[in-house]
Design brief:
CATH class of the largest domain: Alpha Beta
CATH topology of the largest domain: Endonuclease, Chain A
Oligomer: single chain
CATH architecture of the largest domain: 2-Layer Sandwich
Strand content: 15-25%
Number of strands: 19
Largest sheet: 10 strands, mixed
Number of helices: 22
Radius of gyration: 24 Å
């Protein structure tokens, strides 16, 4: 492993090396692209606004048209399958600005610019529904052990290709550094392929260390693929970063890169974090490829995260999840890597594991359903770590119902926010939840980014799914549901250790909140489904 000094030299001479033309304007690769896209989007907005200024000259016709549009928009919203809280948000803005907001509603619901991807996702779901066969013995085993859990597992298998696995080794990581060390160890041992999918990739020590191994493995002939969300090209990476990776033998692409054209596609981001090695080892959790996730860069105080490693056949499900995203714009890529059957560990591990994903454009709200099911079936406790708390009516009721029937429901949220608006909005739910008996804690050292549910010492979820609208409705996500696996005890221990560093939210602390949080929290409830 290189020293930090050697790494800095590597980075200076490595993949981000600038050409002479770029050195004349060092911000050219990012700034010009950002500027052009922004200007073109503003131009489109001005043209649309100009249309409404023009049509306002025909006032009698305009008022009649406004009334008709308002009526039909309300009829549509009351009859469509949208989340009720989302309907209220649309109705509020339509009442203020009937024509532009109704047109925007039509634009989003017609999925302008997104139909091709939605059609392709539907094809992929059909192609892969039975690609990894369900072990009927494992399904019967979990149903006999716990009928309620068996019901959820059967539903997961119905919603997608999410089999339940036995004989899977699981390893819970209570922070980014722990997972990073395991990632480096497993990457070094890769023999066949490495598939990496990350919401954020940012140049630094963490990504540089991983990239160095990826480049070496690509040179050795392994199938190395990297995919990151297209927003990175505006915030963190040069616009041609995928091409630069390809020059080192790494297959790379950005998911849904931002173009200078309005499209509903931009609302659906790839928030997954998946690393699969040889179809036998997989990682997921909240940890992106950036230095703050391993504590080498301080942002928002101490960064608290969590991750999971699985070893065994369950890794095949993560391989399939990766390939489903990869194949959206590459239909010829195929599914062969996820079809190889690897043997279970020599000493079968205890418990059951169901890796699953959530797609924002299919008919299943998998992430939300799993969380709701855990809350509704809990007997003793549900302990939750989440960076955001922006709830729809169903999840809010599930949290309150669990607490009201005697289940110990505890939530750990950040003490130092990364987004002030989201922080204020989360606080707007505090009094409602406290009234129902839910206990809320804030992590005083800094920011909690972990997405963990632990229930009754026997169920847990670790993954990428936050308790907010973005994750539950608008992002591509993934996680692993575990039942009676040994690492559940580690997740609960991590929760207890984190809780010891938290302050409890009380009615008094709510009364003493800043005016900004009180006012902004209430105002932002109008736009909660957009956050």
């Amino acid at each position: 492993m290189k020293t930090e000094k050697e790494y800095r030299q590597y980075r200076e001479n490595g993949i981000l090396r600038l050409t002479k033309r770029q050195k004349k304007g060092i911000l050219t690769p990012i700034f010009s692209r950002f500027l052009i896209i922004t200007l073109l989007l503003i131009l489109q907005f001005l043209l649309i606004s100009g249309f409404f200024v023009w049509i306002d000259e025909f006032k009698p016709f305009f008022h009649i048209l406004t009334g008709l549009i308002l009526f039909f928009a309300m009829v549509y919203l009351f009859s469509c399958d949208m989340d009720p809280t989302g309907k209220l948000t649309w109705l509020f803005f339509i009442a203020l600005f009937p024509i532009p907001i109704t047109l925007f509603l039509a634009y989003t619901r017609l999925e302008v610019g997104h139909r091709r991807i939605k059609r392709r996702v539907g094809e992929i779901i059909d192609e892969t529904q039975n690609l990894i066969p369900q072990n009927e013995g494992a399904l019967r085993g979990i149903s006999v052990d716990d009928r309620n859990t068996g019901d959820l597992v059967r539903w997961l298998n119905h919603s997608g290709c999410f089999p339940v696995f036995v004989g899977v080794e699981t390893e819970y990581h209570d922070g980014g550094q722990s997972q990073f060390e395991a990632i480096l160890r497993e990457l070094a041992a890769a023999k066949e392929y490495i598939f990496l999918e990350s919401f954020i990739i940012k140049e630094g020590y963490m990504w540089g260390s991983v990239l160095e191994i990826l480049m070496k493995k690509a040179q050795e002939g392994l199938d190395v693929r990297v995919m990151y969300d297209g927003m990175c090209e505006l915030a963190e990476l040069p616009w041609d970063y995928a091409e630069r990776l390809q020059s080192f033998g790494i297959k790379a692409k950005a998911f849904a890169p931002i173009r200078p054209v309005f499209s509903s596609q931009y609302n659906y981001r790839d928030h997954r974090k998946i690393l699969v090695i040889d179809g036998n080892v997989a990682f997921t959790g909240g940890i992106n490829m950036a230095d703050e996730y391993i504590g080498r860069e301080e942002r928002f105080g101490v960064w608290k995260d969590a991750g999971l490693m699985v070893r065994g056949n369950a890794a095949r499900s993560f391989t399939l999840m990766f390939l489903q995203m990869w194949n959206i714009d590459d239909p010829e890529a195929g599914w062969e890597p996820c079809m190889k059957d690897y043997p279970s560990p020599q000493l079968p591990a205890e418990g059951y594991v169901v890796p699953y994903s959530d797609c924002p454009i299919d008919d299943f709200k998998v992430g939300k359903t799993v969380y709701t099911d855990i809350l509704n079936r809990a007997g003793k406790y549900v302990h939750i770590m989440t960076p955001y708390l922006i709830l729809d009516a169903e999840l809010e009721n599930a949290l309150k119902y669990a607490a009201q029937r005697g289940v110990e429901v505890k939530l750990i949220l950040p003490g130092i926010p990364d987004k002030k608006a989201a922080y204020a909005l989360a606080k707007s739910y505090y009094r409602i939840l406290l009234n129902a008996g839910v206990k809320i804690y804030e992590y005083t050292p800094g920011f909690v980014h972990a997405k963990v549910f632990v229930c009754d010492d026997c169920r847990a979820v670790v993954g990428t799914i936050n308790l907010d609208y973005r994750s539950l409705y608008h992002h591509y996500e993934c996680a692993a549901y575990m039942y009676k696996t040994p690492c559940i005890a580690d997740a609960e221990k991590d929760f207890a250790n984190t809780l010891a560093q938290c302050r409890e939210v009380t009615y008094e602390s709510i009364r003493n909140e800043s005016l900004y949080n009180k006012v902004m929290g209430k105002l932002l409830r109008f736009v909660a489904p957009l956050m």
